[in-house]
């Protein structure tokens, strides 16, 4: 916030480590995706961590992004006509985006905290959340994703297998190597070294 002074000592070290995790190349990819997903009306940020933070800070761009991943008529986040200028309204808008992202399927551990974005405490966490959201959108493949599918990795999906009764019965006759075997090496003749000598 405005009354927060500079960080010194260990706080400064921790903050600099967090800032080093921010990826400029990833920022470019995320900006391209957001513009492709939401349209050119969202504009583009100034390059760099601070420009990216200012672009997303009021929550409107993020809200448009998550709404664009849903079909028409079921938009999870209400977007005000004019961008909010009051701090608590902007933070509320970010919180609505985070709730919608979780509802979409982003894991809670991949979701950033509101202050990570609003106060630029951890912009790398914001990038992680957007990457997770993009990966889910590509994986769902429901026609709502716009942009290059190669920008994000597809998440692993369940591959369910069905077996017939005869296949299941056949499997009971096979002895797997994990169960052991009565052929081959044995422990006969093994010694465990010399016994411990007690000297008095």
Description:
- The protein has 200 residues and is mainly alpha-helical.
- It has a domain at 22-151: Orthogonal Bundle (Actin-binding Protein, T-fimbrin, domain 1), CATH 1.10.418.10.
- It has helices spanning 9-20, 24-38, 49-56, 60-68, 87-104, 114-118, 123-140, 165-172.
- Helix 4 runs parallel beside helix 5 (87-104).
- 22% of the residues are buried.
What name does CATH use for the topology of the domain at 22-151? Answer: Actin-binding Protein, T-fimbrin, domain 1
Number of strands: 0
How would a crystallographer describe the biggest sheet?
Answer: none
How many angstroms does the end-to-end distance come to?
73 Å
The backbone outline, from C-alpha atoms, is flat
**CATH domain class name of the domain at 22-151:** Mainly Alpha
**Residues in helices, as a percent range:** 40-55%
GO cellular component, one term: cytoplasm
Protein name: Transgelin
Biased composition (Polar residues): 179-189
Family: Belongs to the calponin family.
Question: Topology of this structure?
Answer:
Elements: H1 9-20, H2 24-38, H3 49-56, H4 60-68, H5 87-104, H6 114-118, H7 123-140, H8 165-172
Helix pairs in contact: 2-7, 4-5
Family: Belongs to the calponin family.
GO cellular component, one term: cytoplasm
Organism: Todus mexicanus (Puerto Rican tody)
Compose a concise summary of this entry:
With 200 residues, this protein is mainly alpha-helical. Helices cover 46% and strands 0% of the residues.
Using brief descriptors, characterize the structure shown:
8 helices; 46% helix; mainly alpha; 200 residues; Actin-binding Protein, T-fimbrin, domain 1
